[in-house]
Amino acid sequence: MPRPPFIPHRTRPVGKLPVMAKLRDEFGMVAHLALCGLETAPSIEAFDALAEVFNLLQVDLRNDARRSDVAAVISDGAGALIAAQDAVAAGQVPAPELLERIRAGVNAIDGLIGKLDVTRLYASMQVLKAMKRAEARA
């Protein structure tokens, strides 16, 4: 019986790696604590933490047609956060209707984060960092 020809080993690309519980909890904790900070003691630090989470998810979901409904809720929450920026900078609690939209966005993020791909999320983090560096240079 002849020996089969040599076929070099090919590595298969790794499939989807879900965001595991610890990372999911960390994202949720950052978002919910920052939201709590906006409601109780508004500060730029809480605003920045929440804005970073919103920006990361918006970058990650920008071309994901399957999650366009969740992306719309997150974008609306980010828009409400931007609208509340002046009030937060002045140390004032944002208007209740803005807080509700922001809360809806945070809840959407919290429900979605465990369903995302961690490698894609990491790539989105790198894109966001590159965007910040480019903005700093400009």
Walkthrough of the structure:
This protein is mainly alpha-helical and 138 residues long. It has helices at 21-40, 44-61, 68-83, 85-89, 96-112, 118-137. The protein is built from six helices and no strands. α1 runs antiparallel to α5 (96-112). The longest helix is centred in the first third of the chain and has 20 residues, at 21-40. It is elongated.
- Name the helicity range: 55-70%
Strand proportion: under 5%
SSE pattern:
HHHHHH
Low-pLDDT segments, ≥5 res:
none
Any idea what the shape is? Answer: elongated
Topology:
Blueprint: H1 21-40, H2 44-61, H3 68-83, H4 85-89, H5 96-112, H6 118-137
Keywords:
single chain, about 0% strand, elongated, mainly alpha
Give a summary of the structure in a few sentences:
Helix content is 70%, strand content 0%. With 138 residues, the protein is mainly α.
